[in-house]
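ok new one. same drill as before - structure tokens go in, u give me an amino acid for every spot. 267 of them this time. try not to just spam alanines like last time pls lmao
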């Protein structure tokens, strides 16, 4: 770590596993005093990607909308779009929705596929580097992550297995409050693709909570680069709203919802 020449935060807690009706989460805290920083990874029902959250004074008032992070020493830099908010305790919070721990693989011809980390690669992780403009880069000594991520995967897999029978008995499933076509406007079409005259088809899956608000988004298939997919997910999380699903007793409950969007150049 000394060779990185970064502010380095040692862990102050172990990894903690938490479960909620529609998600599982692993969380760990690093540093002391004003530098205390929390890192969490969440997975939603039936999803393999993560919601990654970093909270603390070190992520306060970033400029722009992109974060660079990497799980060292071997994994490449991941550039992702983030949203800025506040944690439950009022700390600045940066959240990246639907991310993987390593950048997507470019197979050429506009095809990008996820690069999931197997247990051996997760076990080789020692630290996470984080860069937000204009803040100074810093590192979290996360240590080997194989056991923590495997426990997270098992938690959401077990939860989804129990969820499926109950889901089959829902009296009502989540429904958009307006036509999904109205979630996107002409200005949401990426300028680069527009000027090239290229269309884009994106298939996605959301987890809609019991208030009708989506809190997980995962791109399941796409003909466009990863950064475009991220913009689609963030737009969906900000604008898509639903009447919530209800179980057989009439109580509002979480519900997966999937669809596709075709961004098409007008003739």
């Amino acid at each position: 770590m000394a060779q990185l020449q970064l502010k380095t935060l040692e862990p102050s807690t172990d990894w903690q596993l938490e479960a909620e009706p529609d998600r599982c989460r692993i969380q760990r805290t690093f540093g002391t005093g004003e530098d205390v920083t929390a890192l969490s990874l969440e997975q939603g029902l039936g999803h393999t990607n993560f919601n990654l959250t970093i909270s603390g004074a070190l992520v306060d008032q970033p400029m722009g909308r992109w974060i660079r992070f990497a799980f060292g020493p071997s994994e490449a830099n991941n550039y992702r779009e983030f949203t800025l908010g506040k944690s439950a305790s009022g700390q600045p919070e940066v959240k990246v929705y639907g991310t993987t721990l390593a950048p997507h693989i470019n197979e050429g011809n506009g095809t990008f596929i996820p690069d999931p980390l197997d247990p051996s690669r997760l076990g080789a992780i020692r630290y996470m580097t984080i860069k937000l403009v204009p803040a100074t880069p810093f590192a979290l000594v996360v240590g080997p992550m194989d056991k923590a991520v495997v426990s997270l995967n098992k938690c959401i897999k077990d939860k989804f297995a129990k969820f499926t029978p109950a889901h089959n008995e829902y009296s009502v499933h989540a429904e958009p409050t307006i036509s999904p076509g109205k979630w996107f406007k002409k200005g949401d079409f990426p300028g680069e693709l527009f000027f090239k005259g290229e269309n884009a088809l994106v298939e996605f899956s959301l987890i809609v909570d019991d208030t009708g608000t989506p809190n997980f988004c995962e791109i399941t298939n796409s003909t466009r680069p990863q950064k475009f997919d991220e913009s689609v997910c963030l737009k969906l999380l900000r604008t898509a709203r639903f009447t919530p699903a209800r179980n057989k007793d009439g109580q509002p409950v979480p519900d997966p919802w999937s669809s596709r969007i075709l961004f098409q150049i007008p003739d």
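The first strand starts at residue 7 and ends at 9. and btw Residues 2-164 form one domain.
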